[in-house]
Amino acid sequence: MTRKEYLGALDSLKQWAAALRDLAEEHTKKLRIDDGAEVPDAGFEPLRAAARDHRFLAFAPMLTPQAAKPDPIGFSDFISNISRSFVDAQKRLDSESAAYLKSIEDRAHVQPAVFQMPRVTANMRFALEVSKSTGFNLLFFDKKEESTTRNEQSIEFEVVSVPAPPEAMRAVGSLAPRLALTMDPAVRRAVLARIAEETPGRLSDPLIEAARKTPDRVLILESSPAPEPRWLALHATRESANSVGMWRITKDGIETIYSFSRNNRPGEVNLVELVSALADRQEAFLK
Q1: How far apart are CA 36 and CA 44, in angstroms?
Q2: I want to staple 260 with a disulfide (CB 3.0 to 4.6 A). Which of 2, 10, 159, 245 is the partner?
Q3: Domain ranges of the chain
Q4: How confident is the model over 88-140, as pLDDT tens digits?
């Protein structure tokens, strides 16, 4: 393009700009829009039409409201959202399974069943596009060269439901409070030695004597989880209906919970036979 052609294009541009200004001014007056007021979307329509009619293409994007771009999502967030949705859906299925099992309790001919999602398959596609453009644009006349390179990739993965390993189930179970009979020889020796070293002369005398003479008949229950080891010890003999006691063993000593030979109150169940029966079975097991 020569200098003369270039200046002529600029003169044409000025004429088109003046024409568009007159058109916009006339239209905004019809819409009764003050100088300080916002121009509504309807106010741009004549300008868009003029741009289409007169190849005023460079103004069209400026005069057209741009749609809001969606927020980008990271790859890690994408996988996390898929996994979270999978777990939420399985929770709902578990709830429905429980309701279904309850609804067929009195129907023996219906086969019990639970519902699970074995897997979820997800596919993510993404592309990288690089554009290079050189040239000049005078609104109604342009000359340019453009090259575009586009690379597309896809990632496919599955989220699979599998049974929890025994170690995970034990770890979850260990968080629940429980009181369990201890049969571990090393633990029993340590607790019995702790009891046997106590000085007689208190309410714990029957337990101390049993720990020294008949240790296999002392029931030791471990309380967990706890910040430090705690045990309950039970001991009973069949000498009388009240020969039973319960003690708590901590690092600080022995505390009596249910004193040995205490008379039962009306309505209380006698623990002698229950504890003695358990002691018989434990003694036979430990031999």
Answers
A1: 16
A2: 245
A3: 3-63, 75-97+112-160, 177-286
A4: 888 888 888 888 888 888 888 888 888 887 887 877 777 777 777 665 554 44
Query: Cα Rg for the chain, rounded, in angstroms?
Result: 43
Residue 261 in contact with residue 272, Cβ under 8 Å?
Answer: no
Check: CB of residue 279 under 8 Å from CB of residue 217: yes
Mean pLDDT of the chain: 75
Side chain identity, residue 153:
Q
Q: Is 245 exposed, middle or buried (0-12, 13-18, 19+ CB in 10 A)?
A: buried
Query: Is residue 27 within 8 Å of 41, Cβ to Cβ?
Result: no
Of 223, 227, 233, 229, which is closest to residue 198 (Cα–Cα)? 233
Q: Which two tokens stand for residue 161?
A: 């439901």
- The terminus-to-terminus CA distance of the chain in angstroms comes to 109
Asked if 210 contacts 236 with a C-beta cutoff of 8 angstroms, the reply is: no
Q: Determine the number of helices (DSSP H) and then strands (DSSP E) in the chain.
A: 8, 7
Cβ count near 234 (within 10 Å): 23
CB 10 within 8 A of CB 3: no
CA distances to 21, 51, 207 from 33, rounded to whole Å, are 15, 22, 98
Alpha carbon 130 to chain centroid, angstroms: 38
Alpha helices, DSSP H only, in the chain?
Answer: 3-30, 45-53, 60-63, 75-103, 166-173, 185-196, 205-213, 272-286
Taking CA atoms, 261 is separated from 153, 237, 241, 246, in Å, by 80, 10, 8, 11
Q: Which carries the bigger pLDDT value, residue 109 or residue 67?
A: 109
Summarised one tens digit per residue, pLDDT across range 5-62 is 667 766 766 776 777 777 777 766 776 666 666 666 665 666 666 555 544 444 444 4
Provide the CB-side half-sphere exposure for 247 (13 A, CA): 31
